[in-house]
Specification:
binds adenosine monophosphate, binds magnesium ion, alpha+beta, single chain, 504 residues, 5-stranded antiparallel sheet
Length: 504
């Protein structure tokens, strides 16, 4: 759509940047408020994801133009966009909030990308909306750069995720503990339908909204469910599989989402809302980074069971469309939800098997992985480094793994012997297997100390460390000379006091 925009840098031309087709607004009145962004006084583009822009059918140069930046920051509504604040409810840390919604965000509209996929274009930090409650509707540069970085790191790690298109500084300040420079984050997602969207729809007087939402979600994400005997159950099952797959990915990378409230659980199975998330350094299932997660509800090791709990919250609003008889509906939903641990475990172990260089079905994979994790826990080993160095064991060098698993040495000997003998029995080409392991065990992850340093510099106007880190994380599986420090653990003492923050 955007070809030709390069030469004519005017609002009229640039407003036809995206080819919008807004199915959410069309299908689901009752689940949004039409709204507009607060004007940013002096927008400045800080980061643009050019490959993503191209995938959306837009010329990156057009987005970089002054008029393009006006669109990205929300100052200009492009042709075909119908900006809305979406309504949703949510269980936050277990307590139900019946009306959350986009307090500081807007869905601009939907674009069908060059691969034929429908994608939401969404602004975050674009000002107060009717759902803002006590919030200011704004976002600071640091947290929006953080969301961009984490989002794109997850994509490069091949984890289902929402994507980052841009961060635009607004030129205005945001009051937090101090006055901070403001920004808008531009996100792309296969949709923003959440468990909380269903919770909200079910709370409305009009039952038609819930059925319309069910139909929309099925058409958009799981069209096969439309042909099932009970489409609502088929949708829940599909979301269960998507979430099981997602959480298995997180677990196998040491990722802690940090705020798995039902408003942050997508129907698509994409990771969303990267506020307090962080990668774990030393392996400990009890790890929590979020400053507000006092009880450790969203600790690393709790994520699978919280995932199941959240899916039960999806089933509740759907009970009336599962069966007119409530008892039968509850029975059917419960029976289905009970299969979550098995669905999750299968995906987790398949991922672990790949990390161990074994076939997904290898009978020893699960036990080998969980024994390795026990050794890592006892040794406070670095999660990422231990997995990464495992391929060296097959190449005949176990020093890297031993350096991490420093404590219980007899147990480490025994584990390494077992690992080698399992591989000897498989008898595959060792070099090839080791190379395959390196394609699933990253060498570079967004290490917390590096992220914080990049954001601190970025907020102060120096984007070089952010760009360098983004560049490293774009290719997380290939070890490169000169990037050694990006694979190093945090300096002594850093983790003891490290905390992350929500809604910042
Ligand atoms: P989160 O935990 O970031 O997913 O946000 C939870 C809820 O708080 C959502 O409804 C957000 O829209 C809302 N929210 C977070 N920060 C702000 C803010 N600064 N102003 C208005 N609403 C906000
Ligand atoms: Mg959220």
């Amino acid at each position: 759509m955007a070809t030709g925009v390069l030469v004519a840098d005017t609002v009229e031309v640039v407003t036809t940047l995206f080819g919008f087709d807004n199915s959410f607004v069309r299908d689901l009145p009752g689940l949004y408020e039409r709204w507009h962004a607060t004007t940013a006084s002096e927008p400045e583009l800080l980061v643009l994801n050019e490959p993503l822009a191209l995938g959306l059918g837009v010329d990156p140069a057009a987005l970089r133009s002054a008029a393009g930046v006006e669109v990205l920051v929300g100052n200009v509504v492009p042709d075909g966009a119908e900006p809305v604040a979406q309504a949703y409810a949510g269980h936050q840390f277990g307590g139900f909030s019946p009306r959350l919604g986009d307090g500081r965000a807007l869905l601009l509209g939907e674009v069908v990308d060059t691969a034929g996929r429908r994608r939401d274009l969404h602004l975050k930090g674009s000002g107060r909306t009717p759902f803002a409650r006590g919030g200011d509707g704004l976002a600071a540069i640091g947290p929006m750069l953080r969301e961009y970085l984490m989002c794109e790191a997850m994509a490069a790690l091949r984890v289902p995720t929402t994507r980052a298109l841009a961060v635009v500084a607004t030129g205005d300040t945001v009051r937090r503990e101090s006055m901070l420079p403001g920004a808008v984050f531009v996100r792309v997602a296969s949709s923003h339908l959440r468990v909380g969207t269903f919770q909200y729809a079910a709370s409305l007087e009009d039952p038609g909204v819930l059925s319309a939402l069910l139909e929309h979600a099925i058409q958009r994400h799981y069209p096969d469910a439309a042909d099932a005997n009970v489409p609502a159950l088929a949708l829940i099952e599909a979301v269960m599989d998507a979430q099981a797959d997602l959480i298995a990915h997180w677990m196998n990378l040491g990722f802690i989402h940090g705020v798995m409230n039902t408003d942050n659980v997508t129907i698509s199975g994409e990771t969303i809302d990267f506020g307090p998330c962080a990668f774990m350094d030393r392996y400990d299932p009890a790890t929590v980074f979020s400053s507000i997660d006092h009880g450790g509800r969203y600790a690393y090791g709790n994520q699978p069971s919280i995932g199941q709990w959240n899916l039960a919250r999806l089933a509740e609003p759907l009970l009336p469309v599962i069966n007119a008889d409530l008892d039968t509906a509850v029975e059917d939903a419960t029976e289905l939800l009970r299969t979550f641990p098995e669905r999750y475990e299968r995906r987790l172990v398949a991922g672990q098997a790949a990390k161990l260089g074994l076939d997904a079905e290898h009978p020893e994979a699960g036990a080998l992985a969980s024994d390795l994790l026990d050794l890592m826990h006892a040794s406070q080993a670095d999660f990422t480094t231990t997995w990464r160095r495992l391929s060296d064991v097959l190449r005949g060098d176990d020093a890297g793994v031993r350096a991490e698993l420093s404590t219980a040495s007899a147990a480490v000997d025994a584990w390494l012997d077992r690992f080698r003998s399992v591989h000897a029995a498989v008898g595959g080409p060792v070099d090839e297997i080791a190379t395959g392991m390196d394609l699933v065990n990253p060498i570079y992850i967004p290490r917390n100390h590096l992220v914080e340093a990049a954001l601190a510099a970025g907020s102060a106007g120096d984007l070089a460390p952010f760009e360098e880190l983004s560049n490293v994380l774009a290719d997380p599986f290939v070890e490169r000379d000169g990037f050694e420090r990006f694979a190093q653990p945090a300096p002594e003492g850093f983790l003891e006091s490290y905390q992350t923050f929500c809604g910042t």
